[in-house]
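Before relying on records like the one below, remember that each one covers exactly one chain. Contacts with other chains, cofactors or solvent are not represented anywhere in the record.
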Amino acid sequence: MTKTPLLLVPGLLCSPRLFAPQLAALSDAAEIVVPDWRQAPLSIFDSWEQTARWVIDQMPSDEFALAGLSLGGMIAVEIMQIAAERVTKLALLDTGMRAQNATEQAIRRARIRLADEGRFELVLGLQMSRFIPAYRLPDKALVDEVMAMCTETGVEIYKRQEELAARRVDRRPDLPKIACPTIVVCGRDDSATPLFLSEEIAAAIKESELVVIEQCGHLITMEKPDETNAILRRWLAAPVVAP
């Protein structure tokens, strides 16, 4: 069976651990590449285009399926601005396309200041409340794995990514231009990028499909790996119809 080249883009504070369950479960169907932010120069985060181009450069194949979670989903849409002809299908996971308002920018920069002051552990604690629903916090294995992922990504990458997110542009006007088969997936209880953001993405992309994972928060790939893997497997198997 021919495997689909698949580029999985991690989000803010996320290492390749974010997609470890997908690497294990989907390797029979896909040749998977997961960029590791720790291998990139910090300067890629100076602009959205630089970030997107570095991610594209990690993908050896000319054409590929593309999926990104959270900040990774935003980067995936940036990739669609500069290399849409290479993307055969698109999956946007727990993400949003709006610009940040002044209040949201201030919150992000306050977290950056905490990190600058040596209070990165406090920042990680704040992020846990956004990444994992309260009812899953007793799941020690899940919390430990997410914390390990965020810790290994590290403070310097975090600060650059947080500032990048603070100054993102509104990509909603560009969504109707996306012509490849697209799915939009979101955890019902995602507090970092709430469901309504996925709903408006799906409404803007012609013939896209919205899939909601119940009893799940922001990190669907880690929190509900079996359901997420089934969704992505179905997406990978769907034929690509030429426009």
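The two ends are 25 Å apart (CA to CA).
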